[in-house]
Amino acid sequence: MNTFLTICLFLIPIFLLLAKRRSSKRLPPGSLGIPIIGQSFDLLQAFQANTAEKWLEERIRKYGPISKLSLFGKPTVFIHGPAANKFVFTSDISTIADQQMKSVQMILGDRNLLELSGKDHKRVRGALLSFLKLESLKQYVGKIDEEMRKHLEMHWQGKEKVVVLPLMKTLTFDIICTLLFGLERGTRRDKFVDCFQEMLQGMLTVPVNLPFTRYNRGLRASAKAQNMVKDLIYEKRVELEQKGGSPHQDLITYLLSIRGQDNEVITEKEIVHNILFVMVAGYDTTSVLITFIVRLLANDPAVYAAVLQEQEEIAKNKNSGEFLTWEDLAKMKYTWRVAMETLRMFPPVFGGFRRVLKDIEYGGYLIPKGWQILWVASMTHMENSIFPEPSKFDPTRFENQASVPPHCYIPFGGGPHMCPGNEFARIETLVAIHYLVTRFTWKLCYTDNFFSRDPMPKPTQGLPVYIVPKKPL
Question: Which of 32, 179, 426, 471 has the smallest C-beta neighbourhood within 10 Å, fewest atoms?
């Protein structure tokens, strides 16, 4: 008996060691690198140099479509391909959940839609979708049209040269403030702009909270922005309760008034954090899309001519001063295909993270609980087997959208986590392009096609162009 016990005590550590080795062998290939930092700086440098895709392609050549690394303080598994996209976007919420970098979570707040899961995600997403549903958005076309005209009058008319990207950010921010938050032009809106620029600068950084870091400045800007949103909430609540304001007049008022099936409400903290989420998402992504369309139209005369013809046909059928309508947008089929192809080649959102809620297997490897998964949109967008000649700009790819294989084109994400504001972005983009091509011609000041990411793609110098006004039709 003593001999048996001795043998068992001797073998147990060996069995544990072998089990540990077996477990470690099941982890994807790759290195976690230096603790906390990992490969974060390498990826950030690749963003700045416009080589992020090449950096990931090198990993794929070295390790295959699944590999481990460490990004922004967390062990990470990078997965690639249509099957990977399907896995990310269709997995059960009990298995993986949205997970942003710590810097994004801390700046936007832990109750924003990107951080919620399960019933909370469904409840808050349902509230946002209810406000941004197609039937509601149709009534906003005229208001977006009005904002676009004001924008051109203030920032384009009488100018010989403009810088497109910052102006498009101004446009999308003004639209969001007016339509979604009922915040009129003035000092408070200007302070919001400053805060959001600082927030965006701090979101794609290593979360080291030291006074001289962009992360620290982003946190401080977020605190200021949250206090401003709380002031807005107080004003909207008073207006709603005491003055009989319409629940549908803006997003904040709507979120204050909504009640779920079990009389559930959206808490003030959730309103604040999701207002920041919507403003950051809408401020940058659509402005980037419009900017890259402007650059493309300057570089491709054939595409420009087709867009112009479509938009002039619509303009000719409008009376002087008449706003665009939902029916007009429905006629802009080619223009939207141009936008979709632009999103394929230059997706504003590079990718995202998911949090692993329990040990899972993918591709024959173990992804441990607590790790994060990195997915990247542009990798399948630029794969020759999916989109032939992927470097060629070809809007005809989307004449029959059913021909695009599932889980391969993902500029807005997919499944239950698809961007709730994609239709809103479509309206903004089509209205903006309509007025730009029918009222101006332009020529690029820089003819290179370089762009960097910080974290959104940014063309050289923000895309300065020489502009010439057109005579009215």
Answer: 471
Token pair 């994400």 in the structure block, residue = 413
Q: Given its phi and psi angles, is residue 364 left (phi above 0), alpha (psi -120 to 50 degrees) or beta?
A: left
**8-state DSSP, 180:** I
Distance, CA of 206 to CA of 40 (rounded, Å): 7
Query: How far is it, in rounded angstroms, from Cα 149 to Cα 216?
Result: 37
Q: For residues 164 and 152, is the Cβ–Cβ distance under 8 A?
A: no
pLDDT of residue 12: 43
Report the pLDDT value the prediction gives residue 295, as an integer from 0 to 100. Answer: 97
Are 233 and 272 in contact by the 8 Å Cβ rule? The answer is: yes
The pLDDT assigned to 25 comes to: 52
Kindly state the tokens that stand for 110: 């832990």
DSSP 114-130: TT--HHHHHHHHHHHHH
d(CA 460, CA 447): 9
CA distance 115 to 105: 7
The H-assigned helical ranges of 204-319 are: 214-242, 251-257, 268-299, 301-316
Closest CA to 408 of 172, 81, 139: 81
| Gap between the terminal Cα atoms of the chain | 101
- CA contacts within 13 A on the Cβ side of 326: 9
Percentages of the chain per state (helix, strand, coil), in multiples of 5: 55, 10, 30
- Candidates 65, 107, 71, 98; CA nearest to 84 is 65
Specify the DSSP element, H or E, that contains 335: helix 333-345
Instruction: Determine the number of helices (DSSP H) and then strands (DSSP E) in the chain.
Output: 18, 12
Domain borders along the chain are 28-60+67-469
The fourth-level CATH superfamily of domain 28-60+67-469 is Cytochrome P450 (1.10.630.10)
pLDDT at 16: 41
Read out DSSP for 343-379?
HHHS-SS-EEEEEE-S-EEETTEEE-TT-EEEEEHHH
pLDDT of residue 451: 84
Nearest to 290, CA basis, from 397, 162, 402 = 162
pLDDT of residue 164: 97
Q: Is the peptide bond before 35 cis (omega within 30 degrees of 0)?
A: no
Three-state SS at 417: helix
Element (H, E) at 456: none
What are the structure tokens assigned to 247, written together? Answer: 């629940």
Structure confidence at residue 27 (pLDDT): 94
Give me the pLDDT at residue 442, please.
Answer: 97
Q: Is 445 annotated as a binding residue?
A: no
Alpha-carbon distance of 74 to 104, in angstroms, equals 13
Structure tokens, 150: 């004001």
What pLDDT does residue 11 have? Answer: 43
